[in-house]
Design a protein that fits this description.
By secondary structure, the chain is mostly helical. The protein has a domain of 77 residues: Serine Threonine Protein Phosphatase 5, Tetratricopeptide repeat (Alpha Horseshoe), CATH 1.25.40. The protein is 77% helix and 0% strand. The protein has 32 helices and no strands. Helix 4 runs antiparallel to helix 5 and helix 7 runs antiparallel to helix 8. The longest helix is centred in the first third of the chain and has 32 residues. The N terminus is likely disordered.
């Protein structure tokens, strides 16, 4: 394909002109011809330059295209298409004021071109001059044939310009030209509502119901309108009539349920909701939204019963929907927290686990699962599920805490240390999380007999939280077991029981520090205070040990016997009883 550059064409044209013959008699005639030919050359040259600009416009090199278009206009300022193109480029550069000058000139030069009207209207709209844009459309509709489809755009411009009466009138023109449609009716209704003309908005839909009595959108729209304006009584006949003919339309039942609820007829509302919820044709999301609204009213006993019914009906229709199981989990967790019922907590856990089996991408559900397993002391499951959670969310520090806690509880000390250190790194900018990780790391390193690391972790906590109960208790107790830094241990345990004077575990810790210091009488006093709160195996055994040190061997053996068989006693308890002797 041969391709000529416009400059080559100009040279050729110049050559043709230069070889024309000249005679004396025809000079005046030739002068006129020269002017005409010069104009023709300009027009031809302008067209060639314009085409070059089009080439750059098509490849989106707008800066070069603009240069060629403006050069073309210098040679032919009457080219409407060129003005149109310049306006396009200026709009791309977000220069609407300058673009409007060229767009208006294009329209002036060619007032029958639909696209020039549209460009002018678009620029006015960008300037938020909706009245001017609407006037452009009005002129186009009168001037350019077959543009009635733009009546919708004209109506929208009147709405944007807050000329609502003109918008209604324009929609009436649309109806006269194209007939009635849902889009048209609902558009007019929105305008009436914006004008606070509620009755006109209602009548617009009532007329459609009379013309199309089986059309769901009109009945539902009218019912919602009544509901939102506290005129729910007027919605009842429309909804009942529609439901009688369309009993499987769950959307209508949801609205009827809302009507009954607003009228205080809760049982009737629940009946309609259950019928709607058990219908799988209705999407799960609106059902869950209704259930969540009911859950906000807990712990009302009636609400609890109804919420459970609704939750079960949703699952009957959507047994494999992860969100349905997740909301059921939320419901039972809410009930568990209100009732302190482990049964509800276990149901919540089961639903959360089912939700994760369907979709494991929800971090909050993982959090809930791990929290419940920790509360229920399901340590094996906690270790397993926290490991899986870390695979899905490797950058969430809380998951490392749960995994470290479970590993420590299962005596997987090396794993616990590794996991907790990783979680600590991930939360380096969160002081509260640093406290949590260092607390467990202190416990973990103590079990690994890495006592220096243990103490460093505990000290890091106390620098931030000097009254941390967990660290004051474990740090002082572990020091007492090692018979190291007993004065420091006593200071910490003293602070502990000062802050928690009735906690049996903390009283036992303080007593044991005193015991290791040889202060048996003081230890006895604090152990007796602890026993008033909790006669655990550890406290009873410690009490027996103290009594033995004080020479009360018979009573010591009695306390050891009381402790025997409990889970939290030492391995030496049977030997102490059998030999009536203290072993440490």
């Amino acid at each position: 394909m041969i391709r000529f550059h416009w400059t080559i064409l100009l040279v050729m044209l110049a050559c043709l002109v230069s070889i024309q013959p000249v005679d004396a008699q025809g000079r005046k005639k030739r002068g006129k011809e020269e002017q005409s030919k010069s104009g023709q050359r300009n027009l031809l040259q302008a067209e060639v330059i314009f085409l070059e600009g089009e080439k750059y416009f098509m490849i989106e090199d707008y800066s070069k295209a603009l240069i060629f278009f403006q050069k073309s206009l210098e040679l032919n300022p009457e080219n409407a298409a060129c003005h149109y193109k310049v306006a396009q480029i200026l709009m791309l550069g977000e220069n609407p004021d300058k673009a409007l000058i060229y767009a208006a000139r294009a329209l002036q030069l060619d007032p029958k071109n639909k696209y020039y009207y549209l460009q002018n209207a678009d620029i006015y709209s960008k300037q938020s001059n909706f009245a001017a844009a609407a006037q452009v459309f009005e002129t186009m509709l009168k001037t350019v044939p077959d543009t009635d489809s733009y009546l919708f755009d004209l109506a929208a411009l009147y709405v944007y310009g807050d000329n609502l009466d003109a918008a209604i009138a324009t929609y009436d023109r649309v109806e006269a030209r194209f007939g009635i449609s849902k889009e048209l009716v609902f558009s007019k209704q929105r305008i009436y509502l914006k004008q606070n003309k509620l009755d006109e908005a209602i009548n617009e839909i009532k007329e459609m119901i009379s013309r199309f009595p089986g059309e769901a959108d009109f009945v539902l729209n009218l019912s919602e309108l009544y509901l939102s304006n506290n005129r729910e009584e007027e919605a009842i006949p429309y909804l009942n009539d529609y439901i009688n003919n369309h009993p499987d339309d769950a959307r209508a039942r949801l609205l009827l349920a809302e009507v009954h609820k607003k009228q205080g007829e809760i049982n009737l509302a629940i009946e309609q909701l259950i019928l709607a919820f058990t219908n799988p044709s209705l999407e799960v999301t609106p059902k869950l939204n209704v259930l969540v609204e009911y859950m906000k009213q807990l712990p009302d006993p009636t609400v609890q019963e109804n919420s459970i019914k609704l939750a079960e009906s949703i699952l009957s229709a959507h047994p494999n929907d992860g969100n349905a199981h997740a909301v059921n989990g939320d419901l039972y967790l809410n009930l568990a927290n209100n009732k302190n019922d482990p049964g509800f907590r276990k149901k919540a856990l089961a639903h959360y686990q089912q939700a994760l089996s369907l979709d494991d991408s929800n971090f909050n559900i993982w959090q809930n699962v791990l929290q419940i397993e920790a509360e229920l002391s399901e340590i094996d499951s906690l270790e397993k599920h926290s490991t899986l959670a870390i695979e899905v969310f490797p950058n969430q520090p809380s998951l490392y805490y749960y995994n470290g806690f479970a590993s420590l509880s299962n005596d997987h000390f090396e794993t616990a240390a590794k996991v907790l250190e990783q979680g600590k790194k991930l939360s380096k900018n969160d002081q509260n999380m640093q406290v949590v990780f260092n607390s467990l790391l202190g416990d973990t390193y103590n079990e690994l007999e890495k006592y220096q690391k243990s103490e460093e972790a505990y000290e890091a906590v106390l620098q931030v939280d000097a009254n941390n109960d967990h660290v004051l208790n474990n740090y002082s107790y572990f020091l007492s077991l090692r018979k190291q830094k007993l004065d420091k241990a006593r200071r910490m345990s003293s602070k502990l029981i000062k802050n928690n004077p009735d906690d049996p575990t903390f009283l036992d810790t303080h007593a044991w520090v005193l015991y290791m210091q040889g202060n048996y009488k003081e230890a006895k006093k604090f152990l007796e205070l602890a026993l008033e709160q909790d006669a655990s195996g550890t406290i009873l055994e410690h009490y027996g040990d103290v009594l033995f040190k004080l020479g009360d061997i018979n009573n010591a053996v009695t306390q050891w016997n009381r402790a025997k068989g409990m889970d939290d006693t030492s391995d030496l308890i049977d030997k102490k009883i059998a030999d009536r002797k203290l072993y440490e």
